[in-house]
Structures are given as structure tokens and as C-alpha cells.
Design a protein that fits this description.
Layout: H1 3-9, E1 25-30, H2 34-44, E2 53-58, H3 68-75, E3 79-80, H4 82-85, E4 92-95, E5 108-110, H5 134-137, E6 146-149, H6 153-161, E7 169-171, H7 175-183, H8 187-194, E8 201-207, H9 218-227, E9 234-240, H10 242-248, H11 250-262, E10 266-268, H12 275-280, E11 283-286, H13 290-294, E12 302-304, H14 317-324, H15 334-343, H16 347-354, H17 364-376
Parallel strand pairs: 1-2, 1-4, 2-3, 4-5, 5-6, 6-7, 8-9, 8-11, 9-10, 11-12
């Protein structure tokens, strides 16, 4: 165990003598779920190579948090126990979810973990939008230091849902939007890395979580992806929200999908970076989740699987997408529907929806770094915080157990 790991388990003063760099500003990344972790990693990259800072990770209790320790361990980061984190003092805390963060002793910046605020919460009044409830914005009744939002339109939503949060809001942008936009010129490289042959079409099926998601009806839809898309002309990759993997357990999800892998369907694991796969897509079949919305940046024609009106925030770009994108029909061949989606695709309509993801396109890194360093009382590093294109993904065969290489 490393000295930092020991310190993380019990950060007592006598153990600090084992550290080489001391008296650093301490930044705490609050990682509730794998989804939140991925969002925070984009933000933490803005703090790289600053020897004035020490970043620590902690994982509060969460219903979808079982996979977080393994995910962080694979990153090479020790995990600070939540009880210890709540007893320590930090110079900055970052969180993409509200649970428990009111217990922290730190200036807190909160941010969304997906695109905008897309979902209404089932079982609650229609006005309740995930991420915009008072308890989401002011956890435990305590205001954070700053609330990051992606678009100026969100200020109107804050004023409507939680007026007292409005003065804390900073329109910073969206890191996933900017990373995808910066990576679009590398689409051909991603397709080569995935192992796609010339002329082969990649269909990416995207699911959020919950009973009305794509995965909620996979039993009926997956046979169509296998049986109606001719091998040699099409390849299929399925991306399922990490909450599905965590909620049902990785073993169970793999067991449900093992037969798909044997038929050549690639199942993108929850820890993988899905963004390069989305950019490589020729067609996207999706539901009302964030990944489908980010697909509007790629130029790929779309088919939508249902539009659960009660779960879509009517003020969000997801509501516009539900009107613009054609809906998957059970009555017509899938290849014909993909051809129809392509023939009806209007880039300007999808671009208008994509423009609602952020009002600060290409400026998230600049805005977010400035905010973090201002909160910490430090000057920023004297270089531009560039948005780096995504790395190449693994080959699709890596994610198709039963066909060539096995998935780990």
C-alpha cells in the first residue's frame, strides 16, 4: 500500500511525514457513480501538472455506486473513505450529484452529470426535473459555492424551479459537447480502430436506464438488430447506461447479452469511453437519454425508440429531438427504416437541437478552469486549457465475446 493510500485510509498528522509534496491545496472529487466519475475526469484533466494541487477521490453511498471503487482502482487512484472525507477540510470539492455533499467541509462546485436537464422524475409532479429540484441544487438546504450550468437557457429554469440558486449559477458550458466537437475530424481514424471495413455501416444502439429506456424493451428489439441487419453490410454496437450495469449487476447484464456477443454484436462496457464509438456511427438508434442527444453532434441519422412524454423535460432539447427524429416502427423492416432516417435527415434541424446543449461551445475548459482556480484563490497556469481529441477506441471484437477475442 502506498503512503498516499495509507493516508487516505487514515489521514492522521503523523502519516503525512511519508508524503514528498506537502502543503498542497487539496481538491476532492466526489464520485457517486461511474457516470459521475466520467464527467469529473473531464474536469480534473484541467488540473493536471499543477504541483500546487493534490487531488483525492471519495465515494459517498449511492444505489448505483457499487462499481465506483473498481473504476477508480483501475485509474490508479486510492479511495478516501467517505467518513474520513467528511471529517477533513479541502480547498475545493467537485460533485456531479447532490447526495451527501452538504456534509463536506469545502467550497463546493456542483455540475450536471449529463446533457442539460432532460428527464422528469416518474412518480413526482410534472414540474419535477432531475437536477433542478431544490434538494438537487441546495443539498441538505446548504447552498454550494457555485452551480455550473451548460446554457443560458438553464438560468430561466433555475429561476422557475429554485430562485435562490440563481445567484450561484455560472454558465460554463458542456465538456462532453466540446470533446466530441473537437474529435469529429478523427472519425475515419476511429472507424479504422474499431475494425470497420470499407463500406461497412456501424449501427450504434444507445440506452439510458429505467423501465422506459431502450434496455427496458431489449428482449423485443435486440433480435431485430441481429436478424434484420445483414452481416458484412452492418456492424452493431450497443451502449447501455452504467446505472443498468450497476443496478442489475455486471454478471447479470453480461448473462443477458452473452448471446448477442456470439452473434457479433459488440457490447460497449460501462467503463469504456463511448464518445469515439458514437462519432464513428453511421446510424444511431436511441432513446431519451443524454448519449442520444449528444449524437446530434455527429451527423448520423437517428431512429428513436419511443418518446415517454412524462419522462422528458418539455423545455429541454430532448423534447425537440423527440419531434424531429423518426420513431422506430415495429411494422417495417429495420433496414428500410434506417434508409428512411437517412433520406429524411436534415442537418440544420439536428444542428439547432445540438446548439441547445451549450451556449458556450468550445469554451468549457477555459470557463471551468477559471472558476475552479478563482474558488481556490490561485492564479491559473499560464497556458491555454486545450480540448484534446479523444483517443482511438479498441476494436469492436474486444467487445463482442464469442467472436474472436473475449471481453474481459
Amino acid at each position: 500500500m502506498s503512503a498516499l493510500s495509507t493516508t487516505a485510509q487514515s489521514p492522521s498528522a503523523e502519516l503525512r511525514e511519508w508524503l514528498t509534496l506537502v502543503e498542497r491545496k487539496k481538491v476532492l472529487a466526489v464520485v457517486h457513480t461511474v457516470t459521475y466519475a466520467k464527467r469529473l475526469l473531464d474536469i480534473l484533466s484541467l488540473l493536471e501538472a499543477d504541483f500546487r494541487l493534490q487531488v483525492l477521490f471519495t465515494a459517498p453511498p449511492h444505489v448505483f455506486g457499487d462499481e465506483v471503487p473498481l473504476f477508480l482502482r483501475q485509474l490508479g487512484s486510492p479511495l478516501l473513505p467517505w467518513k474520513e472525507a467528511t471529517r477533513m477540510t479541502f480547498d475545493l470539492a467537485l460533485a456531479a450529484g447532490p447526495r451527501g455533499v452538504e456534509k463536506l467541509r469545502a467550497p463546493l462546485i456542483t455540475l450536471p452529470h449529463g446533457a442539460n436537464y432532460l428527464k422528469r422524475l416518474p412518480g413526482e409532479p410534472d414540474a419535477c426535473v432531475a437536477g433542478l429540484r431544490r434538494r438537487d441544487l441546495l443539498p441538505g438546504g446548504r447552498p454550494p459555492t457555485a452551480i455550473v450550468v451548460p446554457h443560458f437557457a438553464e438560468l430561466r429554469e433555475l429561476a422557475r424551479h429554485c430562485p435562490e440558486a440563481l445567484s450561484l449559477a455560472h454558465v460554463v458550458g458542456d465538456p462532453v459537447h466540446d470533446r466530441i466537437a473537437a474529435s469529429l475530424p478523427r472519425r475515419a481514424a476511429y472507424r479504422r480502430a474499431l475494425g470497420l471495413a470499407d463500406g461497412e455501416k456501424l449501427v450504434v444502439a444507445v440506452s439510458t436506464w429505467g423501465p422506459n429506456s431502450f434496455f427496458g424493451r431489449f428482449e423485443a428489439l435486440l433480435p431485430r438488430l441481429i436478424g434484420e441487419l445483414p452481416s458484412g453490410r452492418f456492424r452493431t454496437a450497443v451502449m447501455v447506461h452504467p446505472n443498468v450495469w450497476s443496478g442489475h449487476g455486471p454478471w447479470q447484464v453480461k448473462a443477458w447479452l452473452e448471446w448477442c456477443g456470439r452473434q457479433g454484436v459488440s457490447i460497449v462496457p460501462p467503463e469504456a469511453d463511448w464518445r469515439s464509438v458514437l462519432i464513428a456511427a453511421d446510424y444511431i438508434i436511441g432513446d431519451h437519454g443524454s448519449v442520444t442527444l449528444y449524437g446530434t453532434l455527429t451527423g448520423a441519422p437517428m431512429l428513436l425508440i419511443g418518446s415517454p412524454e412524462r419522462e422528458i423535460n418539455p423545455m429541454s432539447p430532448a423534447a425537440d429531438l423527440a419531434v424531429v427524429a423518426p420513431a422506430l416502427s415495429p411494422a417495417h423492416p429495420l433496414t428500410e427504416q434506417l434508409d428512411y432516417a437517412e433520406s429524411e435527415y436534415r442537418r440544420e434541424e439536428y444542428a439547432a437541437i445540438a446548439s441547445r446543449i451549450t451556449s458556450e461551445p468550445g469554451r468549457f475548459n477555459r470557463n471551468m478552469r477559471r472558476l475552479m482556480y478563482r474558488v481556490m484563490g490561485l492564479g491559473q497556469p499560464a497556458h491555454e486549457p486545450l480540448t484534446v481529441p479523444l483517443p482511438d477506441p479498441p476494436t469492436l471484437r474486444t467487445w463482442a465475446p464469442g467472436r474472436g477475442e473475449a471481453s474481459a
